[in-house]
Amino acid sequence: MSKIWLPLVRRYSTQPSSPVVGILGSGPAAFYTAHRLFRNDPSIKIDMYEATPVPFGLVRYGVAPDHPEVKQVEHKFTEIANNNQFRFLGNIHVGKDLPLSTLSQHYDALVYAYGAPSDKLLNIPGEHLRGVYSARQVVGWYNSDPRHQNVGLSLSRLKDLVVIGQGNVSLDIARIMLSKPEQLSPTDINPLFLQQLCESTLQRLHIVGRRDLSSVSFTIKELRELFSLSSATFLAPEYTSSLQFLSEEALSTFDRARKRLIKLIQSKIQAAQQNPPTSPSQKNPSNFWGLEFGLTPVEILGRNGQVEKVRFQKTETVRNDTTSSSDFVEIPAQAVVRSIGYKSVPIPGMQELGIPFDMTRGVILNDDGHIGPGMYASGWVKNGPVGVIASTMMDSFSTADKLYKDWLAREPFLKGTKAGWDGIRPIVKTPVVTWKDWEAIKNHEIENGLQHESVSEKFRTWDDALRVLHK
Fold first, then answer.
1. What is the pTM of this model?
2. Is 433 annotated as a binding residue?
């Protein structure tokens, strides 16, 4: 490793001036890292590179449209961006539009905070069938992400939907799919999705997990929101064979938050078992949803290339030497959403710079955010796609503190020109979006939303966003 880094680094023998830092990514990890660096030293210069024309990452394209309170962090990020020492450089795909090696030549330090732009796969037969989607695709569709506007999911032809995975994203998808259109219309939801929601024929939605009910990954707030929907009725598990409720003694081994969550799930299931709802009729279809536990997906089955059902094996039998037909269940589905987590991928050029990337875990190998001289990681690319915005904030602060501590200790950093964006500008050929440009895009989106009596209508293509800037 040292032989790779040596030509790229310098060590200060005197007290260094403030560093020039490049941050790759513009989501929460990137902005919180910038915030902490400015708190440590207001004279630091920061250039933030974003592959798309717009900032905020999953805050913009991942947070559900009916959760505007979560998006309030954008106001804090805007304060950071208005710092005179900060530059936002959107629509620059590092590794494609700009070689990573070139970027490293003009900064004292680079912070990789670009999140997890890929998805984990089930790796089972049938995953390629039409009607199988990643959570990112579906969430991106209803959040107007230009990368996911040709999903091909027709809600008017949908009766049964299976969501594989039991995290908050799964509950978000279920809640949006089961909500009344009029409840969502004032939000910044994609109006084209909303139109489809008005025509939806969805009747049953199953949220399926591999483990038991005590191991779900979602939180109680999101679950309560789903239970409170007036437009959908909760069903007791239909396909879970070994449903076991935890006793008070067993519950005492969990922390308070987990205990409350498990008790809520158990009480709702018991209520649904005692008062089963009437079956939906063809004439007056109703929305039903349920949680299924202890089922591992083994195959997605279809006909003529289109998904028809999902085959699950009871998780408790997966490691058995022999199995029988009773160990398997099949759940009907005209659409399947794979919601088992996001995954980071390396940026082209990392290997040449000696940046160690663990392809299995989907993270850059690091020590408390430190990768190598002048190289740092923050957020999901540092730890994997875990935690909420608050935990990402604390993690980003840790990386920023590590960087600044190393700087003050005169540890080796990149042998950069310290020119930052000014040294790179001449070689970038793509239209660059500044923070002022982003604000113009945002204002157009707000104006477009007013026409539909919504808070905003996002551009659904990058070309449309750039067109308002005449770029």
1. 0.94
2. no
